Amino acid sequence: MSDARDVFRLCACCPSPCRRAIPADTAPQVETVTPSALSMIALAVIDGELDFDAPVRRALSRTEAARHCRAVCTYGLDVAGTVEAFVAARTVAS
User: Fold this and answer.
1) Do residues 32 and 22 lie in contact, with contact meaning Cβ atoms separated by under 8 Å?
2) What's this model's pTM, rounded to 2 decimal places?
3) Helical H runs in the chain?
4) Which of 75, 14, 83 is nearest to 43 (CA)?
5) How far apart are CA 58 and CA 39, in angstroms?
6) CA angle, corner 91, sides to 87 and 94, nearest 5?
7) Number of domains into which the chain is organized
8) Which of 8, 14, 25, 33 has the fewest C-beta atoms under 10 angstroms from its C-beta?
9) At a CB cut-off of 8 Å and minimum separation 6, what does 30 contact?
């Protein structure tokens, strides 16, 4: 599954069992840094519901917590890496 949209759609709809892999001391502990939230934000950008502006880029840059989920993802997804590649591609295109 190489298409970023497919990765984001699958993750955004997942019940997020991977969240247990995020260490309690990872800062910040907020919903917007989970893989599913990052995926929803990216999907909103793709669908034109959010502008790819500075606040959105900042939100999508917070992939530290999502990196912890990669090893335990039920679907074997690397959401953090996919978000980072998505941001890099959008930044170059802007």
Assistant:
1) no
2) 0.90
3) 4-13, 35-46, 54-60, 64-69, 79-93
4) 83
5) 14
6) 135
7) 1
8) 25
9) none
- One digit per residue, the tens of pLDDT, for the chain of length 94 reads 459 999 999 999 998 899 888 888 876 678 888 999 999 999 999 999 999 999 999 999 999 999 999 999 999 999 999 999 999 999 987 7
Q: Looking up tokens 């995926």, which residue turns up?
A: 39
Question: Could you tell me which of 72, 4, 3, 64 has the C-alpha nearest to residue 32?
Answer: 64
Q: And the tokens for 46?
A: 């793709």
Range of the domain at 47: 4-93
DSSP 18: G
Closest among 42, 38, 45, 92 to 64, alpha carbons compared: 38
**Owner of token pair 């959010």:** 50
**What is the distance between the alpha carbons of residues 61 and 65, in angstroms, rounded to a whole number?**
11
